[in-house]
Amino acid sequence: MMSPEEEAEMDAYVENTELPMTAMLDTEGESIDSFVANDFMASQVVDIFESVADTKINSYLESLDSDAYLKYATEHTYEYEGYSESGVQFNVPAPNKSNSGLTIGGLDIPNYTGNVKDALAILKKILPTNKYNTVASYGGLKLKGKKAKEYLDNNPLNIKLTEKEIKDIQITVVKEKYKELQKRIPQNLLNKLDAKVKGEMIGVMFLNTGPNSIDAVKKGLKTNKQSDWKKAYDEYKNYGWKTPSSHNEGRTDRVAEAIKEAYL
Question: pLDDT tens across 219-244, in order?
């Protein structure tokens, strides 16, 4: 839900944005009255104005939405991932308990989409050519779990990441996860979703999308019934991680608490 300040800003945005049809009429020196004398033409003008206005409003809402969710999504991603310039920059997380592969700045290369090339495409946008080439030519990119850890131990990855590069990797992944969320929840509903809930959901999606949790949130948005929001809360509170840990459960607990705060 937008604050009064955001609503005022949106109104000003729409009011001060010149629509293409207005620009055309002004350029040709015709008045609206003469242009719409014909009923059919009048309806066409109205349709065009409404279509363009709706598009601009939706675009504006999405931009506000994106700015808001990103703060929550990235804040705790940095915290939970734990990568930093002065500490761990890359590793194979929990090799004896998980199926993780070589993970650079929080980006699990073989598991990001299941296609190593997708993960490399992100790194190519962020890393200098020499660092990217070092990663792209690394031999153990498809390995997972213990095999990935053993390979990394025997074949150290010779790169040094900056704090900015690590954060840029995580922000890029967060934005890609938001695109996945847009595919699961229609934009008109997503615009209504509390920014904190949305951001914390994406923090979970950094690791796992969950089989039912996103659908439960979508239903809550559709009906706005307390019972449906309670089900969404329960889905995250009792997420059922295959490898439970404070690292994993902390993320889903944050979503549950954000849902409780906003809707229950």
Answer: 999 999 999 999 999 999 988 776 66
DSSP string, 104-125: ETTEETTTSSS-HHHHHHHHHH
pTM above 0.70, yes or no: no
CA angle 81, 82, 83 (to 5 degrees): 100
Burial class (CB in 10 A: 0-12, 13-18, 19+), 183: exposed
Return the bridge partners of 144, or none. Answer: 101
Both tokens of 113, joined, read 């989409």
| Amino acid at residue number 77 | T
User: Distance between terminal CA atoms of the chain?
Assistant: 15
Q: Which helix or strand (DSSP H or E) is residue 211 part of?
A: none
Counted residue by residue, the chain has a size of 264
Contact criterion met (CB below 8 Å) for 45 and 21:
yes
φ, ψ for residue 102 (rounded to 5)? -60, 120
Q: What is the CA radius of gyration of the chain?
A: 23
What is each CA distance from 70 to 26, 174, 176, 177, 201, in whole angstroms?
A: 40, 8, 11, 11, 11
Please state, in angstroms and rounded to a whole number, the distance separating the CA atoms of residues 78 and 192: 26
